[in-house]
Amino acid sequence: MKKTVIIVCLAFLTFQGFSQNIDESTRKKFSIVVDIFNDFWVGVPDSINNRFFNQGTNISGLYDYRIGKSNYSFAFGAGIGAHNFFSNAFVYTDTATNNTVLRPISSVYPGTGYNKNKISFTYLDIPIEFRLRTKKEIRASVGFKFGFLIDSHTKYKGDNYLNNTPLYLAKDDLKIKVKDVRNIETFRYGVTARFGWKYLNITGFYSLTDLFKKGEGTEMYPISVGISLMPF
Fold first, then answer.
1. What pLDDT was estimated at residue 5?
2. pLDDT at 220 (0 to 100)
3. Which of 15, 56, 74, 191 is the most buried (most CB within 10 A)?
4. Which residue segments constitute the domains of the chain, with CATH numbers given?
């Protein structure tokens, strides 16, 4: 979480400084959006305990096309979206079906405790928005975005289950990062919304695709809610 906050703060300060050096016409046509959000996961199996806070970030750049002289516009652009799923789930592939299965770590390796366990995935997104921006700097938008998976991995820190050494006895706890989680959906899409004033907005994203490919993993998907920073 600390790394996320630092990256977002640096991005905001950089974009803010950049915005002060561009002309007004460009300022009105191009916008940078930095989202800090929490993923609420739907469809998580009853056997899995997932954390309430699953922080994530989006950084996007969008070009605005104003509709005549009105306060309305269309915008499109590109961005990077990073999501997390923190839980007690051990991710493995069922050799009989090749499906990706989530099971509690303690049921796979009895007596195993952990400090951190998550699935992370990152998308290259293309957002499209219909926007309203009033003279008093009130902003609102509804839109749609679709993205392509560019990274996925699991990260575990806890008891060394490889040799069944409890954390309180081990000199060094086990740290494992596994790249390319199998059967994650490579293409995602969903609806977006944003509302706020000037630089600070509330944002939401409702995924219309599951995390895993249909029939090849758990049918779960995120609903993202957070804040947007819009330096210009």
1. 47
2. 96
3. 56
4. 2-23+30-229 (2.40.160)
Higher-pLDDT residue of 162 and 216 is 216
Q: Name residue, tokens 């998550």.
A: 118
What tokens does 74 get?
A: 């269309």
CA dist., res. 73 & res. 64, Å (int): 6
Apex 88 CA angle, 41 and 102, nearest 5: 70
Phi, psi values for residue 19, rounded to 5°: -65, -25
How many of the other CB atoms lie within 10 Å of CB of 87? 21
CB-based contact 105:159 (threshold 8 Å): no
> Are 185 and 209 spatial neighbours (Cβ–Cβ below 8 Å)?
yes
pLDDT value of residue 24: 52
- Rounded to whole angstroms, how far apart are CA atoms 19 and 124? 24
Tokens of 123: 């998308």
Query: What Rg do the C-alpha atoms of the chain give, in angstroms?
Result: 20
* pLDDT at 25 (0 to 100): 54
Residue 99 CB neighbour total at 10 angstroms: 17
Who has greater pLDDT, 214 or 29?
214
Which residue's entry shows tokens 């070009």?
A: 63
List, for residues 125-157, the tens digit of each pLDDT value: 999 999 999 988 999 999 999 999 999 999 999
Q: How far is CA 135 from CA 56, 121, 142, 154, 198, in A?
A: 31, 38, 19, 46, 10
Give one DSSP letter per residue of 45-89, joined into a string: -TT--B-S--EEEEEEEEEEEE-TTSSEEEEEEEEEEEEEEEBSE
